[in-house]
Amino acid sequence: MAEKVCSHHKSKKKKILRRCCAGLLIFNFIILFLILIIWAALQPKKPRFTLQDATIFTLNVSAPNVISTTVQVTINSRNPNNRIGVYYDKLDAYATYHNQQITYYTVIPPVYQGHKDVNVWSPFLYGNNVPVAPYNGLALSQDQSNGAIRLTVKLDGRVKWKVGSFISGRYHLHISCPAYIPLGNSKNTGIIVGNAVKYQLSQSCSVSV
């Protein structure tokens, strides 16, 4: 008789555990489903970036495999969302030439970007005697002789999304801005600013999150 009572209690406990597990699964499913519905209703969009201009202070090859660069760029960032804010926790800006980094990282201070807000950043990108592949040094000298160079300004960092009082986890953000700069040719749009030359670009950037 005692064995029957024990087996009955065990069976009852198993049923309670199954119900609890099923309840938790259903609850989690409902929460995830609601989050998906809210996210779809808000229609989140990635921030949009534009490279407005580049001011060249220094860009030369001191040896076949050594490049020195001092460039100030102006980057426009726009949040196209109506109900979603963006926290830029960390952003590093730098320049590349033929997929090789030619400046050090320049840190852009953390900032919050509200709905439909626009932020403008103007970081200096430095690189003194940066070693590069010999063919890139030769290519840069050749591009300067031909009257145009093609750099890429990049920003890497982390962002968080804000919806009401909810703040998401961190997401990686990668921005790539092509900068085609005509130097000393008939289509030159450079403006002399002290010992530098400023070029208006207004080129859209690609964004991946």
Task: Give the fraction of residues assigned to helices.
Answer: 25-40%
Structural class: alpha+beta
Q: How would a crystallographer describe the biggest sheet?
A: 8 strands, antiparallel
Radius of gyration: 27 Å
First-to-last CA distance:
65 Å
Mean pLDDT across every amino acid position: 86
- Order of helices and strands, N to C? HEEEEEEEEHEEEEEE
Low-confidence stretches: none
Strand content range: over 45%
**Number of helix segments?**
2
Characterize the overall form.
elongated
Question: How would you summarize this macromolecular structure in one to three sentences?
Answer:
It contains 2 helices and 14 strands. It is α+β, with helices and mostly antiparallel strands and 209 residues long.
